[in-house]
Specification:
Number of helices: 10
Number of strands: 22
Low-confidence stretches: none
Strand order of the largest sheet: 2-3-20-21-1-22
Strand content: 35-45%
Distance between the termini: 59 Å
Radius of gyration: 36 Å
Helix content: 25-40%
Number of domains: 4
Mean pLDDT: 85
Largest sheet: 6 strands, antiparallel
């Protein structure tokens, strides 16, 4: 059993397979909505059965399950074992002759002096270039090396990977997501009951005691229908503290009690008052309507079984008898209202802000036009770990490749008219630089000693 475990920990294929699986699950969890519409899923099951099967696995639940921790756990153990083996091998190599690296280039030089003088000059030249002497100093073969920081870079890289994997595990255990719908001008007391689709109810308790209200909303469009930017001004009030205003945009979130609040989407929220016979108020408040396309209807159920179908045209224009919108900006908002009884339309009207219309046995007042916005609430304690680990990985890679492990071997042979010096330049990476490195060494030694190139 220990032998099989060691084999598994040494297996790069197993570690890579675990990392790819982990990345695929996390990618699907971030792209697939947790509240996938059953109707859309049924359509996908017919048109794209493979994709439908993947979505039915609920990747967001898999990514937050304890079973998912087996994947980063395997990679963590494999990486930790690799660090231990690397450090052990490096410790065992101390005191042993340094071996040449995998990529090599050679050069030769004829010198007028003795072989021992040639080695001495080569050793001095190499030391001036930052190389460290390896082995005996009085031999006719001299080995020098540099780039030992590269090993430290490798260790830093693997430690960074461990920190990232720790962050993934912490994120799996602590990640909390929810949606918050706000209508302009209507404050909401935060808490688990005020949000939609929460992943961890208990974590949302820390939101209690804070009230949030959207005081203003602006949207900019290019050519009338292409969103350029939209943002909201939020007023946050906590018991015993003065209110504070925060501006949130699509790519500029704010923090609320340890949660990141991100603007996700928006729509229009007309204030409606619907009355029935005798002036009895059937419903009153803001109706949250979808933005695209203009004229999309949303249903509003009324007491007694009747229904109100409402559609908004932000920049209303009549083309014949049909309503259209020239843009998404609320320049000339018009609300189309249809009163349905038993599924059959009994009356309809078009209303501007401040207008009232009689529809059958009831009346509808369009008091004002506001916005609504959908915010994503998120809290993930693993993100700082992942950020730190990513920085360590980048630092380790920089150290590894900027301080490329290099070994030079000089061998001098006595000749009748002097000696011959052979230069072998080796490196672990960047083989194209070896030949240039050998040539530059040969040129400097020739200028230093008055020798001739072979």
């Amino acid at each position: 059993m220990p032998g099989r475990l060691t084999t598994l920990l040494r297996s790069r294929r197993a570690a890579i397979a675990a990392m790819l699986t982990m990345a695929a699950v996390l990618a699907l969890a971030s792209l697939v909505p947790a509240d996938l519409d059953p109707g859309r899923l049924a359509t996908l099951r017919w048109r794209r059965p493979v994709l439908a099967r993947i979505l039915r696995l609920h990747p967001e639940r898999v990514a937050s399950s304890p079973l998912f921790l087996l994947l980063p756990g395997l990679v963590f153990a494999s990486t930790a074992f690799s660090i231990w083996e690397r450090v052990r091998r490096e410790r065992d190599r101390r005191g042993r002759p340094v071996a040449l690296e995998r990529f090599r280039a050679t050069a030769e030089l004829h010198l007028p002096g003795s072989a021992r003088d040639a080695i001495k000059e080569a050793r001095l030249e190499a030391r001036g270039s930052g190389y460290r002497l390896e082995g005996a100093a009085d031999s006719l073969v001299c080995v020098v090396s540099r780039g030992g920081v590269g090993f430290a870079g490798s260790i830093v890289f693997h430690v960074g990977l461990l920190v990232v994997l720790t962050g993934v595990a912490v994120s799996t255990v602590t990640r909390t997501n929810a949606e918050l719908l706000l209508a302009e001008g209507f404050p909401i007391a935060l808490g688990p009951e005020a949000v939609l689709h929460p992943t961890r109810q208990g974590a949302l308790e820390r939101l209690r005691g804070t009230t949030v209200a959207m005081r203003d909303f602006t949207a900019e469009f290019a050519r009338g229908f292409s969103p350029v930017d939209f943002g909201a001004v939020l007023e946050l009030t906590r018991a015993g503290a003065p209110p504070r205003a925060e501006v949130v945009r699509v790519n500029e979130p704010v923090w609320v009690n340890g949660f990141q609040l991100t603007l996700y989407r928006y729509g229009f929220a007309p204030e409606l008052t619907v009355t029935g016979r005798g002036g009895r108020v059937l419903t009153e408040g803001a109706a949250l309507l979808r933005v695209l396309p203009p004229g999309t209807e949303d249903g509003l159920a009324l007491p007694g079984g009747d229904e109100l179908q409402v559609a908004l045209y932000p920049d209303h224009e009549l083309r014949g008898a049909e309503s259209t919108s020239r843009s998404l900006a609320p320049v000339n908002p018009v609300l189309r209202v249809r009163w349905l009884t038993g599924g059959t339309e009994v009356a309809h009207a078009r209303l501007r802000p401040g207008e009232t219309a009689s529809l059958g046995t009831g009346r509808v007042t369009f008091a004002n036009l506001r916005y609504w916005a959908d915010f994503q609430l998120g809290r993930d304690l693993g993100l700082p770990w992942i950020a730190l680990g990513s920085a360590l990985i980048a630092l380790g890679l920089a150290l590894r490749f900027l301080f490329d492990p290099q070994v030079l071997r000089f061998e001098a042979t006595e000749l009748a008219d002097g000696c011959r010096l052979e230069i072998v330049a080796t490196s672990r990476y960047f083989p194209a630089l070896n030949e240039d490195r050998a040539e530059r060494l040969r040129a400097r030694l020739a200028a230093r000693t008055g020798g001739e190139t072979a």
